[in-house]
Amino acid sequence: MLPLVALVGRPNVGKSTLFNALTRSRDALVHDQPGVTRDRHYGVCRLEGQEPFIVVDTGGIAGEEEGLAGATARQARAAAGEADLVLFVVDGREGASALDDEILAWLRKLSRPTLLVINKIDGVNEDAVRSDFARYGFADVITVSAAHRQGLDDLLDEVRERL
Ligand code: GDP
Ligand code: MG
């Protein structure tokens, strides 16, 4: 069994873009509309000379319990619950939001090894963004731009150290 890495975060932070960057696929739907990814999405991250791992692109955890959004949220929670490592993806442009706070509280209860990944770091002040998320209390914070493939090597180093 290959190790499993789950991408968790609210809609529109760039989980699917990161999934595509890690798996070099165009499988995941990337869209400006929040919540466009309805299903769990599995792919394999293969790097030369490295043990591959499975990446799960979850739909947004919207906090709802009913209907399609609720089902999506439950699937996302299930994916995270079976992951060897969770990447908690947040949006560096928008900063920390109430929904991020909610997901963080849930992740703390889930108690899986978790890295904070601040995405969309292109064109923003990295220090300011890092201090915005400092209250989340993560020892290791990775900043990336999934869309521009920046910071992915550092992210992969951190992931591999934990698998
Ligand atoms: P998801 O809902 O979390 O899966 O988010 P998506 O991957 O669908 O991305 C949502 C939007 O953010 C899309 O318009 C992406 O093009 C955009 N986006 C994703 N990553 C980045 C990034 O690194 N920088 C910028 N500027 N935009 C990004
Ligand atoms: Mg998506």
UniProtKB/TrEMBL annotation:
Q: Which organism is it from?
A: Stenotrophomonas panacihumi
Question: What are the residue boundaries of the EngA-type G domain, all occurrences included?
Answer: 3-163
Transmembrane regions: none
Report residues binding GTP 1: 9-16, 57-61, 119-122
Q: Any idea what this protein is called? A: GTPase Der
Known function: GTPase that plays an essential role in the late steps of ribosome biogenesis.
Gene name as annotated: der
Q: Which residues of the full protein are shown?
A: 1 to 163 of 465
Quaternary structure and interacting proteins, as annotated: Associates with the 50S ribosomal subunit.
Provide the family line: Belongs to the TRAFAC class TrmE-Era-EngA-EngB-Septin-like GTPase superfamily. EngA (Der) GTPase family.
